[in-house]
Amino acid sequence: MPEALIIGFGKSGVAAARLLKQEGWEVELCDSSTSPTLLEQQQQLASEHITVKLGHKPEFTSSDISKLIVVSPGVPWDIPILAKARELGIETIGEMELAWRHLQDIPWVAITGTNGKTTTTALTAAIFQTAGLNAPACGNIGYAACEVAIEARGNTSTSLSNQRQEARGNTEKNSVDWIIGELSSYQIESSVTLAPRIGIWTTFTPDHLARHKTLEHYYNIKAKLLHNSQIQIFNGDDIYLSKLGLNHWPNAYWTSVKGEKFLIGEKGFYIENGWVIEKTTTTPQPIVEVSALRMVGEHNQQNLLMSVAAARLAGINIATISQAVREFPGVPHRLEHICNWQGIDFINDSKATNYDAAEVGLASVQSPAILIAGGEAKAGDDTAWLAQIQAKAAAVLLIGKAAPAFAQRLQDVGYSNYYIVEIMENAVSMSAELAKKHQASVVLLSPACASFDQYPNFEMRGEDFRQLCQKYLT
Question: Closest Cα to residue 132, out of 108, 167, 165, 166?
């Protein structure tokens, strides 16, 4: 048994293996699956003297001498293999925890939440980088956290180095100034000591319950990150979080798109008269016009508030924030405008992998809209999503494994203008015809589902949509 065992051959697992190898550990990386791509990566890592076992599940006995197990985010924390390892006294941590142990001298902004994490993380990183700071976005977005740790050790990867140079305009300094981390519940769950300078909680709705079992457990995992944060920022417009309010989080900064009178407590950030307003001293001050942000939807105004709050609490000046917000292009796969064809906008919202995110996506576009939905369904309350479909969708095209169940749910609420088209290619070609027929201004891919029935991830699903739009509409 090696000194360090990495379970899970994703981006995070590979980065963890490389980091530990550079520190002199004997490293073995294992994954229960195999594919031509993984076999190619296996050969690459072998040249770096990292052993990779594919199609393999480790087994532990009392004679094992492994000193450390590092788990990729996609590996459930409570599977029997890991329970057995902990029982044997083998230290077991997540990749994010490993990165934290190497980066804890650098201040972190850690962003979690059911929805809104990616946009808030990307915008926060953009503001910090506009300020000339080397502040890579990592974790559930961008780089694996251990890749950043490798750079911080001085073993700079080309891509990270380029990001640093572009952000700073300075090739002399190689230090990381801030870490901007998007953290899923999976990554928090397996992090023991992670304690950010600034913690942000964007939203809280039921998600990942197949893994976390109960809403209370899901909440407690995310709350752990905020409890460990020196400075806490909360979405005060979130129904669940706002009910907890100052009783649970007395020292937090709260945000609201609805104005000062809706602010929880005496300090926070809110929108009034078209401006983001900071209220951290006795005199509120305007920071940036909301219209500076190109992204549509009230939820993105909330994301803007949380990003601005993090930047101001980190000491970034108002002019820099305004410049960064105006230049921010948005996030791929989250209400991303793909093209306009004969007056119809085609929008990629592939990152909407649950009902709440899909409801927000549909609420953000003009009606009538043609909606493409489906994939691998998740547990959750679809009531508000279905109501939004009834209000705004001229037709719904259903793809993937969830299509029959979604069709039944639409029937249940009296919505009949749906079509089971099975695959994305059929959906895109038919959406153009339906948009013309119903004089719809938008075709929206907002699946309300995970992608794993047809795609490796939501990014590949969104790219398929993009390519099909280019094929049919150019």
Answer: 167
* Rounded Cα distance, 432 and 370, in Å: 9
Q: Which residues pair with 397 in a beta bridge?
A: 372, 419
Model confidence band, residue 40 (pLDDT cutoffs 50, 70, 90): confident
306: left (phi over 0), alpha (psi -120 to 50) or beta: alpha
Measured over the CA atoms of residue 196, residue 197, residue 203 and residue 204, the dihedral's sign is positive
Task: Please state the φ and ψ torsions of residue 336, each to the nearest 5 degrees.
Answer: -85, 125
Six-digit token string for 243: 């009910």
- Cα 16 from Cα 18, distance rounded (Å): 5
Q: What is the pLDDT of residue 9?
A: 87
Strands 27-31, 4-7: parallel, antiparallel or unpaired by DSSP? parallel
Q: How far apart are CA 376 and CA 320, in angstroms?
A: 41
Instruction: Please give the helix or strand (H or E) that residue 288 lies within, else none.
Output: strand 285-289
Cβ–Cβ < 8 Å for 50, 80: no
158 contacts 201 by C-beta, under 8 angstroms: no
DSSP string, 303-368: HHHHHHHHHHHTT--HHHHHHHHHH----TTSSEEEEEETTEEEEE-TT--SHHHHHHHHHTS-SS
Whole-number CA gyration radius for the chain: 23
Amino acid at 54: L
Segment (H or E) for 457:
none
Secondary structure of residue 377 in the 3-state scheme = coil
Q: What is the pTM of this model?
A: 0.82
How far apart CA 341 and CA 111 sit, in angstroms, is 36
Helix (H) or strand (E) holding 276: strand 275-279
Alpha helices in 132-238 (DSSP H): 145-152, 158-168, 185-189, 209-212, 215-227
Q: What tens digit of pLDDT does each residue of 257-314 get?
A: 999 999 999 999 999 999 999 999 779 999 999 999 988 888 899 999 999 999 999 9
Token pair in block for residue 123: 């915008």
Is the Cβ–Cβ distance between 257 and 305 less than 8 Å? Answer: yes
Residue 110 has pLDDT above 80, yes or no: yes
Order of all β-strands in the sheet with 91-94: 51-54, 27-31, 4-7, 68-71, 91-94
Give pLDDT tens digits for 184-195: 988 999 998 999
Q: How confident is the model at residue 62 (pLDDT cuts 50, 70, 90)?
A: low
